[in-house]
Amino acid sequence: MGLTVAQLEPRFRVPGSTSEAITVAKSISAEGGSYHVRAGTVRAQLWSPYAHRHLWAAKHFAAEAAELEGDRQPLSGIDGVDDGVVERHRACVGASLILNGAFLDSLANELFRSAVDHKKAVEPLGSDAIEKLAAAWTRIPREGPLVKLQKALKLTGNDKLDGKASPYKEANAAVALRNRLVHYEPEWTDAEVRGERSLKLFDALEGLFPLNPFTSPGNAFFPHKCISAGCARWAIDHTVAFADEFFGRMGLERPYANVLAGGK
Fold it and tell me: Do residues 128 and 97 lie in contact, with contact meaning Cβ atoms separated by under 8 Å?
């Protein structure tokens, strides 16, 4: 199907194999990003944010884990429970925690790339702040998401969050748990959580959420007792609280607001 400039409307999705010679260059906004069309053969490039999709998925898997738990009490063990249920539960909680961390990673990266690419989302910051964010992007790609977002606050003249207080403290613990899962290293632990790295997690997370009902009191806190639907919900709630505070200080709209309202 041939396309004309007049047909390139804001919600238009460019088919993968369609092209036509046109006589002017045109840039258009589209659902999920922007298309840049060059004179001559139509070429489309899509700038796609993904943080909100990570958050939606994290919430989805947390809800799946909660459904599998039902009204089962924490640390009830696995007697009479199908092995498939136990593994599905562990998979859902793990996926939720990892995707919740990915939500923060993507938020940070999308903010800086929005500055680099001069996206409308960051226009309220003003040209000076946008230039500072864009210039910093090449220097911080390997930093953690909380460090990146704290630097963004500083670069734009806003107060950083207190690293020892809520919501930074809880978001940091959620990221640490995600990292332990993604970069998992086994260590000797017991019910008293004597493993050095697990002890740090225990100190950060003890008593903050209901524990895993599909494990027993004799198992270690990580990676057994803490892998629960309550943990996944706690991580999401506090990560979103951090993000809300961040965007409030920046004076920017939350790119994930639709997910919190029940959308995608």
Answer: no
